[in-house]
Design a protein that fits this description.
Largest sheet: 5 strands, mixed
Strand order of the largest sheet: 3-4-5-7-6
Order of helices and strands: HHHHHHHEEHHHHHEHEEHEE
Shape: elongated
Number of domains: 3
Distance between the termini: 22 Å
Radius of gyration: 36 Å
Strand content: 5-15%
Number of helices: 14
């Protein structure tokens, strides 16, 4: 669920400055940026760590699989997968520190009881354990390849700075310069100014190009870490649905409490008072008919008020006009009760699912209530349309603005209610206005 525009995804944020504010182009800055050196360090560390992880995984999994004919293989295999999970935690921390890649922790083990047997069963049944093992097997050949390619940067810096240290060869090695080729008949040394200059230029090309190559390599590393060491899409979806279910349950409970409170404090209290008044009128009917008539007349007014409260309460649960005539008529009815003139435009080919239709109605109703109470607007508008498989709502006003979902206001509850059905609430409300709120709901007709 998103509540504002402008979110960015991916790693690498917060690195040494943006493009704006730098006089040098990115191609020339890359060899000196902190991000490039962090990614280079990540690639260098990947090789020894992947060797250890690969060795552990292959050895322990092979041993455990071979011993599965006996019970000993089960704890060995569980230990192998547990070790992979531990290495996975280390790799997530390394990616977070060096690649600025924030990967969420995977789902924890779900043990059905205490004890070693329950733990082993949870480890072996966990999809995270097997995905961590797959990462260990795939990371090793990729780390070897990345390390080999990244070594070009070391060679590039060495060649680029060759004019500064080529004197070491004639002074201490007894040769004119860096040996480019040699056999038993003749040798070629980089020892004259032209060759030294060409060597430095070649080194410059390697130095400028390799950071971008390393960046591409670590992008693949990021995909491996995110895809195999993070939570699986299915488990993340399950967690999201469980959270949404909790929101729906809480919202339903709050609605029931509100209805109970409104009935108790409103219509029920009036009906109790009405019953008492009619009882007194009945007693006075013989003694003082005029007083009894006045009391009956007052009771009649109370009946009308109670009926109006019950209608309002029923409308708050689910308005009959929405069921009978759809969103166009229902939203027009809501707009007519707003203290601000509201233009309503509904352009729908058919009616969406009843549940979605109800959520759309109450969303617009609550937004118009906010406009009436807080916006100090002179006019507002409601637009409803259908695009692909989504129902779109837009409510705008020319008020003072300043609406913010993050403050925990009614907008936050509204965003949670929409999120429970895979909806999105976007609020654009700068201080001074205008305010624009866009709600997106699944169609599900």
């Amino acid at each position: 669920m998103a509540t504002e525009y402008g979110h960015e995804y991916g790693y690498g944020r917060g690195d040494g400055g943006s493009a704006g504010g730098h006089r040098l182009p990115a191609a020339l800055r890359a060899p000196f940026e902190a991000r490039s050196w962090r990614e280079f360090g990540y690639v260098l560390l990947s090789l020894p760590l992947s060797i250890v992880l690969f060795t552990w995984t292959v050895t322990m999994v092979s041993l455990g699989a071979g011993l599965l004919v006996t019970f000993i293989g089960v704890p060995v295999l569980a230990a192998a997968l547990a070790g992979c999970r531990g290495f996975g935690a280390l790799e997530r921390a390394r990616a977070r520190g060096l690649l600025r890649l924030d990967v969420a922790e995977p789902e924890p083990l779900r043990m059905r009881g205490p004890g070693a047997l329950a733990w082993m069963g949870a480890v072996l049944k966990s999809g995270t354990s097997w995905r961590n093992m797959l990462y260990a097997l795939l990371q090793f050949p990729w780390a070897v390849f990345s390390f080999s390619v990244a070594s070009l940067w070391t060679m590039g810096w060495a060649l680029l700075t060759y004019p500064l240290w080529f004197w070491v060869f004639p002074a201490y090695a007894g040769q004119g310069g860096l040996q480019l080729y040699g056999d038993e008949h003749h040798s070629v040394y980089l020892d004259n100014p032209w060759e030294i200059t060409v060597t430095a230029l070649v080194g410059l090309l390697f130095t400028l190009a390799t950071p971008w190559i390393i960046r591409a390599l670590t992008t693949v590393d990021g995909l491996l870490v995110r895809g195999l060491l993070g939570p699986s899409p299915l488990s993340a979806r399950v967690v999201e649905l469980e959270s949404d279910r909790g929101v729906v349950v809480d919202t339903a409970a709050a609605d029931l409490r509100r209805i109970e409170r409104d009935l108790h404090d409103g219509a029920q209290a009036r009906l109790v008072s009405l019953a008492m008044d009619l009882g007194l009128a009945k007693e006075k009917l013989q003694e003082d008919p005029r007083a009894a008539a006045r009391m009956v007349e007052e009771a009649h007014g109370e009946v009308k008020t109670a009926l109006q409260e019950l209608r309002d309460l029923a409308r708050g649960i689910h308005p009959a006009v929405l069921t009978d005539r759809g969103l166009d008529a229902a939203l027009s009815s809501v707009a007519s009760r707003c203290t601000v003139p509201v233009r309503v435009e509904v352009d729908l080919p058919t009616r969406p699912a009843p549940a979605i239709e109800g959520i759309a109605y109450f969303t617009v109703s609550e937004l118009l209530q906010n406009i009436s109470k807080h916006s100090r607007a002179r006019s507002a508008s409601v637009d409803v349309w259908h695009t692909e498989d989504r129902l779109m709502l837009q409510v705008t006003d020319d008020g003072v603005g300043g609406a913010d979902v993050s403050r925990g206001s009614g907008l936050a509850g509204l965003a949670g209610r929409l999120g429970a059905v895979d909806g999105v609430l976007v609020v654009d409300s700068p201080t001074g206005g205008p305010t624009r709120v866009i709600a997106e709901l699944p169609w599900r007709a």
